[in-house]
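Hi R.,

Here's the chain you asked about this morning:
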Amino acid sequence: MSGEDIGGPEDPGKGSTTPPLGIEPGPVTDWLVTNIEGVTPPLSFSLIAGGHSNLTYRVEDAGGRALVLRRPPTGHVLATAHDMAREHRIVSAVGLSDVPVPTTLGLCTDDSVNGAPFYVMDFVDGVVLHDEETAAAIDEAERRSIGFHMVEVLAQLHSVDPDEVGLGDLARREGYIARQLKRWARQWESSKTRELPEMDESHRLLSERLPEQVGTAIVHGDFRLGNMISGGGRVKAVLDWELCTLGDAMADVGYLMNNWVSPGELPSGTSSPTLAGGFPSRQELLDRYAELSGRDVGQVDYYRAFSYWRLAAIVEGVLNRYMHGAMGDVEDVDLDLFRSQVEILASSAMEFLGS
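And the predicted structure, written out as tokens:
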């Protein structure tokens, strides 16, 4: 949601004949003007580049005020996925803590307005470090500072009492990994585009080796630099809460370790901002998290394996949606790259399970 990630306006405002995919400019403009104080039409809408799940747009009014609108992908999606009311609730609740998130401004659950529910947040200015090139554009001292602040934010999130911010009933508290294994195995079966034995075997091993969950935390589910707005050596806002739930804090730690790719390593995806160098090492982050949280991080390899396996299921779901037209035009999308990424992730899960 940074200026660096905003494409040129694809829609000049209400009444446009060429709005971005997923926006009905007239009804959405009417809703925003009616429900959010101070919005002045006409409005312009532009799809924010990046993201393969919920669609995110920058909205700018006649006075130059910028907002952000989130809605589900167009077309068919899996049941219970992309729940805008739930995501809006989570961001609003976490905003009551010291964890930096955008301020939520409104939720629309009336599908007649835009074909699907959506919610609106304040625009946070900064940069999203989504790849190596973006990270290399800031100096090394700032990269190191952002890295340490990021893990401080994670420890801070895991210290938030769900009951105190109104999220005590968000999900079951215990058995997080078991629930996740069941959920994503079901998603894998629903969306897989071919058989992949490594996914089945890693699921079996993960189920056999379940660690004991210690306490219950708010788990972000996708905690990485590409889901944050940074600036001035700090994390200014944590984004993309659609996978958030209650459960085992170490799941976020394992996921972060997997995404914290050192220079010379191969990323599990197409790129990783930490390949630019200058960030704290993976071990420095793990040690700092243990110090701040007081948690035992000795089983982090299990959580790294789980994270790779779960992400493989997620990416396969994205591939499936692209193949069925739910993510818009696929002309410039390399579907083989998605297939390869799933295979690499499944193999990485097996590696961290010692198989």
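The chain has two domains: 3-122, 132-352.

Let me know if you need anything else.
M.
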